[in-house]
């Protein structure tokens, strides 16, 4: 073997070793993500029903049906309304809590645990607790409302209150996790920047927050925004436990769950799933591209 061949063989061996190390991850990626996605796309083009022996190719008719289906359209707009409430409140309320907790010295650990407890709790169990809390006659929330002199509110019985009520539960669920992320971002900000801002004339805490803290939290805010948006569009357990999908409370995931498992319309459910994935993907990429321009690393 010549010296030239030996020189070419060394990089090739490195490439082969690299491919060998990457092979398990590639196989896992294909098995868990790519192949199921291809199968899902194939089902979406058919009228296949779970357990059926025969099925037919229907092309894009499932997607056309979805955009003319009043139940799906109502579920879509309900999910948008839910996300429109959860995303801003889940982000800015968590930021406010993180700023308050970050300033604590002795009781910081206690408050961190208290706000993070909803994240560790099982959402199905906590939804049952919320069902009791919001009960029109037995719940303590309506007891306080009656004590204040107002009539009891049917939080889970009034159609126009269903989505806002579940959205408030969603905010309660995500605030603790987002608070921990913001606390990590606050801890990473050098104190020298605050001192420099104070010397430059930023005397009040609000001025230092706007000139130092908020810009330095850009990467954390971008991550929190994307993850909160995905979580908001994935709402399912709250609907399944509190309302069981009654009219006015349908969401995207619950609608496709009903089509796929209750009605056994596998082909149509696959089309709804692809639409859901596209919505989440476009939202995540759009938020990332928009916020990336405003982030200071």
Automatic annotation (TrEMBL):
Q: List, alphabetically, the CDD domains matched.
A: TM_PBP2
Bilayer topology term? Multi-pass membrane protein
Q: What is its main location?
A: membrane
Q: Which residues form the ABC transmembrane type-1 domain?
A: 76-287
Query: SUPFAM superfamilies given for it?
Result: MetI-like
Q: Which InterPro entries match?
A: ABC_transporter_permease, MetI-like, MetI-like_sf
Looking at the UniProt entry, the stretches that span the membrane are: 20-45, 80-101, 113-133, 160-189, 209-233, 267-286
Q: Which compartments does it reside in?
A: Cell membrane
Give the Pfam families listed for this entry.
BPD_transp_1
Supply the alphabetized keyword list.
Cell membrane, Membrane, Plasmid, Transmembrane, Transmembrane helix, Transport
The text of the family note is: Belongs to the binding-protein-dependent transport system permease family.
Q: What name is this protein filed under? A: Sugar ABC transporter permease
């Amino acid at each position: 073997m010549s010296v030239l061949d030996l020189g070419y063989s060394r990089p090739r061996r490195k490439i082969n070793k690299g491919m060998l190390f990457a092979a398990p991850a590639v196989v896992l990626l294909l098995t868990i993500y790519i192949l199921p996605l291809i199968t899902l796309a194939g089902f979406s083009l058919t009228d296949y029903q779970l357990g059926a022996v025969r099925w037919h190719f229907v092309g894009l008719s499932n997607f056309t049906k979805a955009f003319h289906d009043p139940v799906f359209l109502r579920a879509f707009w309900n999910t948008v309304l839910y996300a429109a409430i959860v995303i801003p409140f889940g982000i800015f309320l968590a930021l406010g809590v993180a700023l308050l907790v970050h300033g604590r010295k002795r009781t910081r650990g206690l408050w961190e645990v208290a706000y993070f407890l909803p994240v560790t709790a099982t959402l199905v169990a906590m939804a049952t607790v919320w069902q009791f809390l919001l009960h029109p006659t037995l719940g303590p929330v309506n007891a306080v409302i009656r004590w204040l002199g107002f009539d009891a509110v049917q939080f889970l019985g009034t159609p126009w209150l269903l989505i806002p009520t579940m959205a408030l539960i969603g905010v309660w669920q995500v605030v603790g996790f987002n608070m921990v992320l913001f606390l990590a971002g606050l801890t990473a900000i050098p104190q020298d920047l605050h001192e420099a801002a104070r010397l430059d004339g930023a005397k009040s805490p609000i001025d230092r927050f706007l000139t130092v803290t908020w810009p330095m939290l850009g990467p954390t805010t971008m991550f929190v925004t994307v993850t909160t948006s995905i979580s908001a569009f994935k709402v399912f357990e709250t609907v399944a436990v509190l309302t069981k999908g009654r009219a006015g409370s349908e969401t995207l995931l619950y609608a496709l769950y009903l089509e796929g498992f209750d009605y056994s319309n596998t082909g149509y459910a696959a089309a709804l799933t692809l639409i859901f994935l596209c919505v989440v993907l476009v939202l995540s990429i759009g938020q990332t591209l928009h916020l990336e321009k405003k982030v200071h690393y």
